[in-house]
Amino acid sequence: MVKRQRGSAVYPQFKGIGAFPNKQKCAGYIPEHCLQICKKRKERIKFMRDLEKVCIQPKYNYCTGEERFTFIKLPKCLVEDEGFVELSMDAKLLYALFLDRVSLSIKNGWIDNQGRVFIYYSIKNICVDLNCGTQKACKLLDELEKVGALERKRQGLGRPNKLYLKKMF
């Protein structure tokens, strides 16, 4: 395709409505980037039709791939039990994140001399995962420790604390 000056028509020989009377005549004049956009649009339409075939509502945003089956388990007792009323929802969510991390610790073999599974979860990770500041992250850890859901062991030398989750239910 020929490079054009700003403000000039793409195809000066064709002007106005009906300039391309049939597809064969205009097929050679479609720019490459327009063809790519059309191809993506056709792929999207095909994807939406495939969703409709399996009775999925295409209006809603569905996760695709691995993230579709990624979830965090929140123990029901943390929500229903009266003993945890004073525990904030953020602390409950943090406990659920810790429970999720326990399965990873078991796979890694992070078990102490007493046979207890521990996790590493730095304050920086808590801040990123809960979208909060360091003061709030420390407050949430203190809250879980106060209720008896968590035990922290300091390691010192700039290393993250070992966190032991206690059974709350």
Automatic annotation (TrEMBL):
<protein>
    <submittedName>
        <fullName>Replication initiator protein A</fullName>
    </submittedName>
</protein>
<dbReference type="InterPro" id="IPR010724">
    <property type="entry name" value="RepA_N"/>
</dbReference>
<dbReference type="Pfam" id="PF06970">
    <property type="entry name" value="RepA_N"/>
</dbReference>
<feature type="domain" description="Replication initiator A N-terminal">
    <location>
        <begin position="70"/>
        <end position="144"/>
    </location>
</feature>
